Amino acid sequence: MTTDRAQLIDEEQRAPLAFSSLPAFVSDYLALIIQRRMDDGSHLWCPSWWAHPEAIARLAAMWRAFEYLRSDPAIGLSNWWLHHADPHLAVLLSPTGPFHACAQGHRSDAERLPLDRMPAGLMDDPVFTVLVGDPFAM
């Protein structure tokens, strides 16, 4: 059996998604189970979380990991909490996180990371080349 065929069979046997979209995951799961004190400034959440690109990226990563790991009945959800939810929530809810300006409702005064132009040829080194068969290749 080829690797592609085995992967296809594995994907076909995987349970359907518990949450059909990122908004469903946030509203129907996270918002119901995450309980933090929000009135003392130690944790911040923005009801317009979808207006923060970093929040979308982190929450999407949490959702995808949740959907994958929930099928492991032994330690899947523990793995999800420890290695995905806890670290992402720590950043998301931090007073210095993407919701830092949203204590009184959505506000965005965040600045993007500054970037300088990369020198030509810098990424030509073989160490930066994605090889055929590279597990990180897209």
TrEMBL record:
Classification of source organism: Bacteria, Bacillati, Actinomycetota, Actinomycetes, Kitasatosporales
InterPro entries according to UniProt: DUF4913
Pfam families from the UniProt entry: DUF4913
Origin: domain of life: Bacteria
Name of the protein: DUF4913 domain-containing protein
